[in-house]
Every structure is written in C-alpha cells, then in structure tokens.
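User: I'm putting together a teaching handout on how multi-component assemblies are represented. Below are the sequence lines for each component of a complex, exactly as they appear in our records. Could you produce the 3D structure of the whole assembly as structure tokens, so the students can see both representations side by side? Please keep the chain order the same as the input.
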Amino acid sequence: MKQSKITDFSQKDILSIEDLSPIDINLILNLSEYYVSLNKSQNKKIPKLKGKTLINLFFESSTRTRTSFELAGKRLGADVINMSIEGSSIKKGETLLDTAMTLNAMHPDLMVVRHNESGAVNLLAKKVNTPIINAGDGCHSHPTQALLDALTIRRNLKKLDGLNVAICGDIMHSRVARSNIQLLNIMGSNVKIVAPSTLIPNSIEKMGVEIFHNMKDGLQNCDIVMMLRLQNERMHGSYVPSTREYYEIFGLSKKNLDKAKPGALIMHPGPMNRGVEIDTEVADNMKQSVIREQVEMGVAIRMACLEILNSKRVEG
Amino acid sequence: MSKKIFYNARIIDPSSGLDCNGSLIIENEKILSIEKDIQPEINDENIEVFNCNKNILSPGIIDIGVSIGEPGNEYKENIITATKSAAAGGVTTIISMPDTKPVIDDVTLVDFIIRRAKNLGVVKIIPMASLSKNIDGQKMSEIGLLKNSGAIAFSDGYKSIQNTKLMKNLILYCSDFDALICHFTDDNDLSDGGVMNEGEISTRLGLKGIPPISESIILERDIKLLNFLKVGKYHASCITTKEAIDSIRLAKSKSLNISAATSQYHFILNESEVINYRTFAKLKPPLRSEQDRIEVIKGIKDNTIDVISSFHRPETEENKRLPFSLAKFGATGLETLLSSTLNLYHSNEVSLLQLMHKLTTGPANLLNLDQGRLTPGSPADIILFDPDKPWVVKSEMFFSKSKNSPFNNLPMQGKVLMTIVSGKIVYPFRK
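Assistant: Of course. Below is the structure of the complete assembly, with chains in the same order as your input.
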C-alpha cells in the first residue's frame, strides 16, 4: 500500500468525523503514534509550529480538552492563546461571528473552538479562513475525542475493524457518542448502544447502531465498553427517575462488566461521575480500564491534528 | 365614473369554477362584468383598455397570517414594505398576525392597524386580534369588543394555547360572536427547546427536535372540544404532518366546522434543507420529513387543506446568522407565495383552479369577505399573472425589508404582472 503523506489530508478544518475518510483517520492515527513516543521522552518539544499562533477559543467551560490542546500546541512550539468566553447563551451567539472576525484579523494560524450550540463551529468555519479544529459543539460532534478513543483502542487491540463496541448511557445529549458511532462505523466495527429509551435520540439506528435497553444484552460479546457521563446540564425535564436507579440498572458495575468479553476494555471520555454511570472499582481496574490512557492519547492526537492542518495550510 | 377593460385574458374565478378566455370589466372599485367577447377599441377617455396577452386574470390572493412588523418590529418590516411586497406577490388582502409588540389585544391597536393600513398600505390589511391577552395563554382577550372594532379573526400567532380549559372557553365564547379561531397547534412541552423536525437529521446534527406529534396532539384536543361543545368555528393555522392532516380529514367527515391551512414551504421543502445548519430554513412549524411533504400535497389535493398561506415572517440577517438553536424562526414569503403554489400545478399534482381557490376564494369564504372572487359587484381586487414565466428567486430583490427566504436562488415558474386593489393598479409600482 502506498504510504499517504500528511498533505493528502482531505479537509481544511476538522469539524466532524463524518467529513473524514478512512485515509484521513489513519493519517491522524499514524502520526499520533509518533507523538505518543515523543510525549514520553525527556524533551517533549518539537518546533513544528514554531512562530505560529494557535488560538483556543472556548465558549463553553472545559478543563481537560482545553489543557490538552494547549499542551499540544506548546509542545509543537506554537504561541498558544486561550480565550474563554462565557455568559448568557444569547450574548454568546451574538458575539460569535464578531469575535471570530476579530480574531481572524489577528492572523492566527490555527484555531480550536468549543461551543455549547450544535453547528456553531461549522458556522464559524464558514466565516474565517484559519483552519479550525472543533473541540466540541453542543450535542453534535467532538472529533478529537473519537480520534483519541480510536488510537487508544488500536494500541490495545491492534485493530479498529471487526470489533464489538458498546456505547452506554446518555446518547441523546452526547457529541462524543455521535462522533464515536461515526468513526467506528467508518473503520468497520459494530456499535451497540445501551441506554434507557428516554436517552436515545430519534432514528439513531440510521447512524448504524444496534439499540439495547439493558446492560446484560448490550454488553454481550463486547470487546469495548464505552461509558458516557449523564449530562444533567443539558437535560430539560425528566429523563431518568434518579441517579440511584440509573446506577443500579445502567451503571457499569462489576456484575454488568461480566457480560462483556473477558478482558474487555473500559473507556470513559471523562469527567466521570463515580457511582452514577461507573463503579469506582471498575473505573480504576488497571487491567481493563484505559481511561487514563485516553487522556494521554488526547495530547498526541491533538498534536497530530494541529500539524496536519498546519501543513495543509502551508501547502495550500 | 371610470372603467377598465382587460381583454384577451384567461379568466379564472375559483368561486364559480369559471375558466375561460374573455374580458373583465371594472367600474370604479367594483367588478362590473365578465364578457366572452368584447370590442376593445373604444374611444372614450373614461375607459382604460389593457391587453392581457392571454395571461391569467384571477382574484387577488388573500393571505392569512402575515407578520407586518407594526407595531414594534419596524426594523424587520413595516406597513409600506409589507404591502409593497404583497402587491409584488399578487396578495391583495393581508390578514395580519397579532403577535406584535404590543400584542393586538386591545381595540385601540386594531384601530391603529386599520388606520395605518388605510393611509399607507398599497394593498388591504385586515388585522387579527389575539385569542389570549398578551398571547400568554392565560386570559381571554376582549373578543366581542375586538371583533366589533374590526378584528377579522382571533389567533395567538405562532403560539399555541396549552390550557385546555381556556381553549374550551374560547371556543364557547367565540361562538357567541361567530368569531373565527385560528389556532397554531403545538404542545409546548413536547417541542420544548426544539428547533427543527425531530428525526434522523436532528439526531445527526445534534439539534433538539420538534416531534410531529406535538402538532397533532393539541389539534386532536381541539377537535375533541369542538365535537363535545357542538359549537365553534375553528381554523388550524398551519398543519404540516400526516397525523394532523388525518385528524382534520376525519373531523371534516364528521361535519365539524373546521378548516385548515398549510404554508407554501411545507409542500416544496423538507427537513433536509437544514443540513449544514441552514438557519434560513428554520421555520415554525419546522420543515418536516419527505413523507409528510407528500401527505401535505395529498391534503391539498383532496381539500383537507383549504388554504395556502405565505406565513410571511420577516427576520433580519443578524437574527438569522447565528448558531442554529439561537437563530430566529421564520421566512419572508409574500413574494414567492403564488409561484411556489403554482409549483404543484406545473408538476401536475393539483389543478390550477383548485390551487387558486386555496389562495383566494377559500380564505375569503372562511373570513366572510366579499373579495376573493370575480362575481359582478365584488371588490375589484384582481391579479394578472403569467403562470409559466420562469424566474429565479433573488431575495435581495424583494420589496420586503427582510430577505430571509429558504427559496433564495431557487428557480420558480409563474410571475405576477399586475396587481389591482379596489380597481386601482398598485403593481407594477409607478416610478
């Protein structure tokens, strides 16, 4: 097979997994492997983005993703500026394009954007010519999370196709679920979702998943169990009666984990609600849980994404 | 005494089913007669003669539920721009929405609209007043006084009355005054926070959906009330789903006094328009699935749907160029209503006469208006249009103050050549 170059990457921005081809995805994953080893070495800096400016524009609070992107930018030698713009949602909307145009006029080389409204990052990408990485928009998309999950899976199980993956929990409000469903389908794995009916969005089966309403059937024969956080902040109205009941029936306990394949990987995008969707002991199970590895892969994936979009820009 | 003779026309009068070639004669503000053959070379300075070149003469369009911007939203639209837009689109009577700032829930405000429209309007405007005070769904408006002051029907605009007891009392009370209720049906809890049709696309886009059932569940409630109370004159403002159309069909078969309208968008476009977060296609009710679009056409065809309206809802660019959930609902529609409706004629789905009925005689009958027909003695509110003329929608060319049309850049067929209101030519505009 012909080795693809990073300039073969098809997109100007990384907005959503569905825009990416298997070649694009493999490009990012392969380059990330290099950064995984770099991040473990003594000198973690490489001047790939020296003299470049990266703006992290966060319209929604974030600790881990923002830090991860900041670290990624700094390790590549870029000047990183973090901007957190929070306030009433209407205000945010009004200032979105204005803010973007203002920043665009400062000639940043790359922008990372998170926004609490679905589609906000797409809107922004249409208006600015700087390459943009979507760091999560509403309930729509979180491509770098799906990519780092894929890297974690590939490093542990040596492949991304033919796997059975259960994604469990609040699918309705989860951009992580949507991006993972897309990526795993593109790469040829089977996705099952396990959740109460109230947290399953309309027609999700058309995105290529099998639906289950209990852990016992859903986890059957699974290589990977991916847990999601209950997103109480996005819920308006009653979706589950109580966290106690939710944990008992849909939480990942040791008992439920036994239904999956022996040694199945346990994943969680974080932050975890211990005792709500995942049992503490299961989360910290060093043999099966790769939750900490996911965070580690995050920095490498983001370094790869930044480098790829930058070289694409230089080339173009 | 002044006469106008329009000859060499194809004359369509949906009120009588007339579709023939001939001439139409107007005297002052009224229609005098329709003649099969007429000698147009008359040398009388009091008679103006127009060759229609075989184009169609029909009653002017009566458009129920237009947002005219006044009072309160003049930056989006005002009476002059709305009526100019209407004239260019062949709409000769606007039935205005009451959801203004302030809400049309007081006789002085009804009077304000009527007076402003008379002084400034290029076409006729007849206001609707609100069903509930301040359209908050809590307390009845002064239905009797408002009706006496000239409110033609009662509506809460794009809001739906959730309180069943209030709806029951409105049906009862309005029936005492033979007042028409125009109700937009939507279950606020089911559609809470929703910004588009609920389905695969809303799931993919991560947008909150408005389930189709939230339209029919309130409609079913209202039908049950009408059935139970045995009184009331009810118009479902805008139905867009199979379930709602089925409900109306069934209610009509039980001879309830019920009618229904749909919008010009819901038989042409479907929910896929919002892919890529296109806020110009963010409408209320939302664009529905392809199956629903087909059901709307069926409903038009079998007369379950009596009226087609533009649901002209002007919005500024700033209110639309926002993340999808934050953008405002609505589209500017007066200037595309006729052409979009003719689409169903060109695709051989509905007959021309039937479509024109839903734009003219249908709404006129519903509102007890004299216009909307070409019978001698009725107001000379007439349009001349070329049903085949191709054009491409360029919303920046609209006479409306706002340019938010989901039809922008879409090719259309059929264009208004002349609009006559009360015997006066109001479009093309004089330079």
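A couple of points students might notice: The CA atoms of residues 105 and 142 of chain B lie 7 Å apart. The domain at 59-367 of chain B is CATH 3.20.20.140 (TIM Barrel).
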